[in-house]
Each structure stands twice: as C-alpha cells, then as structure tokens.
Amino acid sequence: MKIEYLQSFVTLSNTLNYTKAAERLYITQPTLSRHIQLLETELNCPLVARNTRKVQLTEEGRIFLNYATNMIFDYNHATQKLKEIRHQPEHQLRLGFLRGGTDNYLLPLLQAFIQDYPEFDLQLQDGTHDELVTELRADKLDLCMTMSTTLIGIEKIKLHVAGNLALVLVVSDDHPLAQHHTVTFEDFAEEPYLCVEKQQTKAWYDYIISLFLSQGYYPLVNDNCSSVKTLLMQIALGKGISVLTEGCRSSAPANVQLIPIENVPTIQMVFGYREDNENPSLDLFINWVKDYLR
Q1: pTM reported for the whole predicted model
Q2: How far is Cα of residue 96 from the mean position of the Cα atoms in its chain?
Q3: Torsions phi, psi of 256, nearest 5?
Q4: How far apart are CA 97 and CA 93, in angstroms?
Q5: Of 106, 187, 203, 231, which has the maximum CB count within 10 A?
C-alpha cells in the first residue's frame, strides 16, 4: 500500500470531485483514478461509488477514511522525526545563567567557545538563582552558572569554579557618591536600599542582608522591584541605591554609576552540573572551560 494511494483517496474524499482532487495533488485524473482502483484491489472492496453526476464514498470507504488519514499523519510524523535525527547537531548543551548579573562576564567565554566549536548547539536560558537550581535538579539544564553559595551542599551537584565577580554600589549619576572611585559600607549604609523582590531571588537577597549585618548595618530595604532591569531603572530615577556584581555592567543604563566596594569578598561564580549527567557535550565544555580559565 503506497502512501500516494492513501493521499489520493483522502484528497478525493475531501473534495468528492476527481478534477479538484487531481489539481490539488498535481496529477492527472487518469492517474488519480488508477490510484483509487489499485487501492480498492488491494483492499478487495469498493471505496468510491461512481456515477455520472457525483462521487460518493461507500460504507467501506467511510470506514477506511479515518484509518487512511491516521496512516498519512503517522507517516508524515515519522519522516519528520527521522529528518530531525539526521540533522541533529553532534553536540548539544543546555546552559542556564543568572538573569541580569553575569551577562558581561559569561558572553566573552561563550564567544570564545563557539569560535572553537562553531557547530556546537548551545541552548541558553536565563533565570533567578532559585529557578536555575530547580531546572538543574529536574535535569532540564545540563549546567548553570550562578553563585557558589547557591549550589554548595546540594546533593549530587558538582561545581567548577568559573571566576569571581566584584561587588559594586550602583547609584544614579547625580548621587553624591557618583564621583567616588571606591566606597565602603559606611558611605551608603543609611541610604534607601533597592532590591529585587525576595521571592524572585531569595539567595541573593539573603546574601546581601548577611553582608550588611557582617559590616554592622541593616539596610533600609525596599524590595518592590520585579527584576534587575526595573531595579536599575529605579536607581537611574534617583529612588535609591543597590549592591550588585560588576557582571551587571552591560545591563546598566547610561546614567548610573557602578562603584567598587572596599573590604568585601568577591562573589565566587561556578558552573554547576549533576554528577549523573551523561551528556558527552558536558565533559567537552567543562574541559574546555578549565583550559580557557587556566
């Protein structure tokens, strides 16, 4: 049973007109008639009732129509899947990274990697700390780049150090501290502090609070910002200050300043991945990163 015969039968069933069906199939009417006859011979029953005025399906034809339609669907679906397999890249990797905080640091690394492996299918996904951990543990990401404190202690997650990001104070251009080359916590401890809503990025929120406390201060927190982007816009409008990493520099508006903070630890960034991940592309990428950062 050829797929062409099934396509001819289904098209004729939809049009109930040999001329229209032949035109849709880009074949001649005699060819269409021959396809129907060969199909009827193979099934040993009439599918189409012919007379001089109209075309109708027989009872057998109406029953067979549903099966023929499903067979064509399954055939098309199977050929598409096989085509995808033939054209599937040899290497694929699902990489998550921290939204609004690591772009400036991660992009040069990825550009260098793609230059060495141009055929590599690198699928990128941004997210908050908590979102990245959830996706990684659910095996929806092969690895993610985030703060080491987010992943340390999680069972069956291996870490590879990616580097360190310095903490910076973010202020508007017209803020009194905007012209400073560096600042200390004492310089801004009493300023209105803006941050992303706690439920959006709990790990970072908790880290910053603990950092303030370690310096002997408690921030005057306003956590009404829904994202890093809106946070930076609020700072540009003079609504307050914030502490971020230098990795957000590329996302910052032109009218804000990022000032290094003295006497605070840098943020260790890591690539985290499941120890049971069997994707060979993961080993290739991690080994390349080790050489790149050496």
Answers
A1: 0.63
A2: 8
A3: -125, 155
A4: 13
A5: 231
| CATH code of 98's domain | 3.40.190.10
Q: Kindly state whether residues 52 and 197 are assigned to the same domain.
A: no
Please name the residues in contact with 119: beta carbons below 8 A apart, sequence gap of 6 or more: 89, 90, 91
Q: How many helices (H) and strands (E) does the chain have?
A: 11, 12
Which tokens belong to 158?
Answer: 């291996």
Clarify whether residues 261 and 176 are in a common domain: yes
* Residue 98 sits in the same domain as residue 243: no
Tokens 């502090």 found at? 193
Contact (CB, 8 A) for 136 and 143: yes
Q: How far apart are CA 19 and CA 86, in angstroms?
A: 38
Q: Which class for 147: exposed (0-12), middle (13-18), buried (19 or more C-beta within 10 A)? A: buried
Residue (of 145, 136, 122, 112) closest to 247 by Cα position: 145
CA distance 6 to 8: 5
What whole-number distance in Å separates Cα of residue 50 and Cα of residue 187?
A: 93
148 is in which domain, residue-wise?
Answer: 92-164+269-293
- 54, 86, 118 — which closes off a domain? 86
Q: Are 288 and 279 in contact (CB under 8 A)?
A: no
- The answer to whether residues 79 and 216 belong to one domain is no
Token pair, residue 128, equals 């908050």
Boundary (domain end) residue, out of 30, 53, 86? 86
Q: How far apart are CA 220 and CA 193, in angstroms?
A: 5
Q: What are the pLDDT digits (tens) for 142-199?
A: 999 988 888 888 889 999 998 888 999 999 999 999 999 999 999 998 899 998 887 7
**Judgement on whether residues 251 and 179 belong to the same structural domain of the protein:** yes
- Both 125 and 138 in a single domain? yes
